Structure formats: C-alpha cells, structure tokens
C-alpha cells in the first residue's frame, strides 16, 4: 500500500512539472528527466539542459566561472529550478534528505569545489531562490572529463560501491554526490 501511494505521489509530481513543459513552444534549453531505482527506491531528477554554445551567436561559452559564476548560487540547469524527487529518505554522510520533492541549486567556488544545495521550496522559475528554505548544503566531488560535454547533463546511477550517485556533467567537469537510501 505504502509503495503504491509513493509511486502515485511521484507520478503526480512529475506530471505537474512535465505536462506544462510539453504544452510550451520549443525551448532553447530542452527539459529532461533522469532517474534510477536505487536499492528499491526511485530517485528522479527533472531539469533543463542548456548548451555550451550561445543560442544567439553559436560561440562556445566558458561555463564554470563564466556562464555559471563562482561564488553565486546557480539553478543547476535552465528554465524552471531543477527538481529532485525521492521515494525514500536519502543519506549523504550524516545528512538525511527525507522522502519527497526538493529543488537543487549549485554553489561553485573559484577553487573548483562546489556545493549542492537541497532546498525545500519547489515549483519556482529559475533563480527564485530563498536561502531560508535550504534543507542542506552538500560537498560535491569534482572530476575532470576527458571528453567535453556540450550540453549540461545530469544522471542518477547505481554506485558500484553501493547506494547511488547523482552526477552533473558539463564542459570538462563532472560533479558527483554519493548517497544511500534509508528505509
């Protein structure tokens, strides 16, 4: 019973986000959904995927420290704020994110480090960000990519070490966050 209620809630949240997106004209940064079942619990991310090339000029833009400035909160994608939906609580170290829906923001630093901000407010456009609604700020792991990623890409995957991984890839950088499911 509880599992079917969780699935129904997840479907309703995704429908509320994606149905309006489908009714809109084609966007410069298309919407996407990624997710996976990790240890029996679905983790889903709904986000938009901006390109490295400027939609107006076609020129390649500098992403980290350019389009995404250091020291400022970024909406982790484009258009509507990025949505994280989880059926079960997620644990990252000592931090626990309860089951539910949240907005994801990113705070990149000039030294290359970055924090993932999990915010309790959902449904806002772009950078309508209220720091008072932050649930937690988490350190992201940074890796260099051998091949540049031209379009911002997120992924939820099983972690070979157990649990799951949330990945964000763009330009020559991948930020990731390992997590486990709490039951």
Layout of helices and strands, plus pairs?
Blueprint: H1 2-23, E1 31-38, E2 41-48, E3 82-86, E4 90-92, E5 95-97, E6 100-108, E7 114-119, E8 134-139, E9 141-158, E10 164-181
Antiparallel strand pairs: 1-2, 2-3, 3-6, 4-5, 4-10, 6-7, 7-8, 9-10
Q: How many beta strands in the DSSP annotation?
A: 10
Average pLDDT number: 89
How are helices and strands ordered from N to C?
HEEEEEEEEEE
Radius of gyration: 16 Å
Query: DSSP strand (E) fraction?
Result: over 45%
The number of helical segments is 1
Coarse morphology: globular
Structural class: mainly beta
Low-pLDDT stretches are none
Sheet with the most strands, sense and barrel status: 6 strands, antiparallel
Helix content: 10-25%
Task: Trace the largest sheet across and list its strands.
Answer: 1-2-3-6-7-8
- How far the N terminus sits from the C terminus, by CA atoms, comes to 15 Å
Structural domain count: 1
In short:
This protein is mainly beta and 183 residues long. It is built from 1 helix and 10 strands; from the N terminus they run H-E-E-E-E-E-E-E-E-E-E.
What does this structure look like?
There is one protein chain. The protein is mostly beta strands and 183 residues long. It has one domain (2-181). The chain has 1 helix and 10 strands, in the order αββββββββββ. The strands form 2 sheets. Strands 1-2-3-6-7-8 form a 6-stranded antiparallel beta sheet, covered by helices on one side. The protein has a 4-stranded antiparallel beta sheet with strand order 5-4-10-9, with no helix packed on it. A hairpin with a 2-residue loop joins strand 4 and strand 5.
């Amino acid at each position: 019973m509880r599992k079917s209620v969780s699935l129904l809630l997840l479907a309703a949240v995704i429908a509320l986000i994606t149905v309006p997106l489908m009714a809109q004209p084609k966007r410069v940064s298309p919407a996407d959904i990624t997710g996976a079942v990790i240890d029996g619990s679905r983790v889903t991310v709904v986000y938009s995927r901006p390109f490295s090339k400027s939609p107006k000029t076609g020129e390649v833009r500098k992403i980290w420290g350019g389009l995404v400035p250091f020291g400022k909160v970024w909406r982790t994608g484009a258009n509507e704020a990025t949505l994280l939906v989880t059926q079960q609580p997620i644990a990252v170290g000592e931090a626990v994110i309860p089951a539910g829906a949240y907005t994801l923001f990113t705070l990149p630093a000039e030294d290359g480090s970055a924090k993932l901000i999990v915010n309790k407010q959902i449904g806002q456009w772009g950078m309508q960000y209220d720091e008072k609604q932050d649930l937690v700020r988490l350190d992201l792991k940074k890796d260099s990519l051998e091949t540049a990623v031209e379009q911002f890409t997120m992924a939820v995957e099983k972690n070979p070490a157990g649990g799951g991984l949330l990945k964000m890839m763009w330009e020559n950088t991948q930020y990731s966050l390992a997590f486990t499911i709490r039951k």
